[in-house]
């Protein structure tokens, strides 16, 4: 077949944020699809969202109900979602009850009833909910060959009438191999509702999609008052980070730190500020955002451990007014605290905020709080997830400062409990040292990927206005162990 002979398959937009990207641009029009999963997984809500996004009076949607909940009861709950449009009922969206036909007659009668309604309405979308009920009813009186013939005839008729079809059913994954429904279908969307300790996580998988490439793997989705929103695993990972051009250096806002960094933070870098509790990691991040605001650069702060009002109050004690920039739209504080959070959902929230505000600076405070906000299953893949998230964020050109708490030891200079230092372009390490019976704080720049940086170990103090970096700490060796020893005095030459 030549390129000129190929038929262009148009895509049906689902109306579900993120799902079209997972599907490779939407569902093929006139395809025969199955939405499967366990009870409570969101199958009916997904079907309704697709229906209301595509139905018009000229090309309506037919929604066949079969022995499930009555249409009136179904609509009572579905009308709570923002996608629900009551003006489309009985014009663009029609509900047809097949319960009596299924109970009293055979599969041929069921097929004839569906065809009659389709021929009369010329629908763009057809939904049968629950198709599993039809199969169960027929299972006791019909052989597998007859059932497969019924499914094939149904698919043929609906496709010939140019309808995109969705069969909804409560299936188990073990049925995929032998059930004729899955053999005939063009697309198979499987919805999962997984209980992980005290959290519930919803995931979606495109198990089958003829004629186009979809994004593989399990994708998180959430049901809100707006309906279903999906979070593709590859969101934000397209495109390439521009490293060829000379990048300017951003002022950190911490006096003395830019000198240690070799002139400031390279624009578009990911900076990791690591240290034990109380060393001032969050203060550095706060000063970084405040400096950007002072220079007219919009910023975003993603926090997990305190509420926005608490964060702004703490900034105010350092003499930084965050309320006015937030009101002006130059500062966005993203508070993410649900205990069943996913990394992909967080990435979407932050990337949307970056696009919306044109942010140049981003703070993630902290990675430990972020990990605790995740559902248990996502914590197991935290390192991989951070790799995807940091990669997606740096592709936007935003400069990231992330804080991470490390447990202090006196044998090594640990950089992160997650072994993620390779993800960071620049690393700033804070630590406590004991000198002359006092607990003092020191700072060192461990890495700046873009160029040279100071190797000095500097003492610093946390003051009422933020971090103040002092002079190089001399006269001791073993500073990075936390228990330094004074250098031995130089011995005099006996010949002198």
From TrEMBL:
Per its UniProt record, what SUPFAM superfamilies does this chain match? P-loop containing nucleoside triphosphate hydrolases (SSF52540)
Q: Which UniProt keywords apply?
A: Hydrolase, Kinase, Phosphoprotein, Repeat, Transferase
Asked if Chloroplast is a keyword of the record, the answer is no
The EC code for this enzyme is: 2.7.11.1
The KaiC domain sits at 10-244, 248-483
| Broad EC category | transferase
Matching entries from Gene3D superfamilies are given as: P-loop containing nucleotide triphosphate hydrolases
- Chain coiled-coil ranges: none
**What is this protein's name?**
non-specific serine/threonine protein kinase
- Organism whose genome encodes this protein: Gemmata palustris
């Amino acid at each position: 077949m030549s390129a000129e002979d190929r038929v262009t398959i148009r895509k049906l937009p689902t109306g579900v944020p993120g799902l079209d990207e997972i599907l490779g641009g939407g569902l093929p029009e006139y395809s025969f699809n199955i939405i499967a999963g366990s009870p409570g997984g969101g199958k009916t809500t997904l079907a309704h969202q697709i229906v209301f996004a595509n139905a018009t009076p000229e090309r309506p949607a037919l929604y066949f109900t079969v022995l499930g909940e009555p249409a009136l009861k179904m609509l009572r709950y579905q009308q709570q979602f923002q996608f629900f449009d009551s003006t489309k009922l009985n014009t663009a969206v029609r509900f047809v009850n097949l319960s009596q036909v299924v109970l009293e007659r055979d599969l041929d009668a069921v097929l004839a009833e569906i065809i009659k309604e389709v021929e009369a309405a010329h629908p763009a979308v057809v939904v049968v909910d629950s198709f599993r009920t039809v199969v169960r009813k027929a299972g006791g009186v019909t052989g597998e060959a007859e059932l497969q013939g019924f499914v094939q005839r149904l698919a043929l008729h609906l496709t010939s009438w140019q309808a995109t079809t969705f069969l909804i059913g409560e299936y188990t994954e073990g049925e995929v191999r032998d059930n004729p429904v899955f053999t005939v279908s063009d697309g198979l969307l499987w919805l999962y509702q997984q209980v992980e300790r005290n959290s519930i996580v919803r995931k979606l998988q495109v198990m089958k999609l003829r004629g186009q490439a979809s994004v593989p793997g399990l994708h998180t989705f959430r049901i809100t008052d707006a309906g279903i929103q999906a979070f593709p695993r590859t969101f934000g990972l397209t495109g390439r980070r521009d490293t060829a051009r000379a990048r300017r250096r951003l002022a950190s806002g911490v006096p003395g730190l830019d000198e240690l960094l070799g002139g400031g933070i390279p624009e578009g870098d990911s900076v990791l500020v690591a240290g034990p509790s109380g060393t001032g990691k969050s203060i550095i991040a706060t000063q970084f955002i405040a400096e950007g605001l002072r220079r007219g650069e919009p910023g975003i702060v993603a926090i997990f451990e305190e509420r926005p009002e608490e964060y702004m109050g703490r900034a105010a004690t350092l003499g930084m007014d965050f309320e006015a920039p937030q009101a002006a739209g130059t500062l966005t504080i993203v508070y993410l605290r649900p205990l069943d959070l996913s990394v992909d959902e967080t990435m979407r929230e932050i990337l949307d905020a970056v696009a919306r505000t044109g942010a140049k600076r981003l703070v993630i405070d902290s990675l430990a709080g972020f990990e605790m906000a995740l559902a248990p299953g996502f914590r197991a893949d935290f390192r991989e997830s951070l790799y995807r998230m940091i990669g997606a964020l740096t592709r936007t050109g935003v400069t990231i400062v992330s804080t991470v708490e490390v447990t202090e030891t006196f044998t090594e200079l640990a950089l992160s409990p997650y072994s993620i230092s390779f993800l960071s372009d620049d690393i700033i390490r804070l630590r406590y040292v004991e000198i002359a019976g006092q607990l003092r704080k020191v700072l060192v720049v461990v890495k700046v990927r873009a160029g040279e940086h100071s190797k000095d170990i500097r003492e610093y103090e946390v003051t009422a206005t933020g971090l103040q970096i002092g002079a190089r700490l001399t006269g001791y060796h073993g500073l990075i162990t936390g228990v330094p020893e004074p250098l031995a005095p130089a011995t005099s030459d006996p010949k002198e």
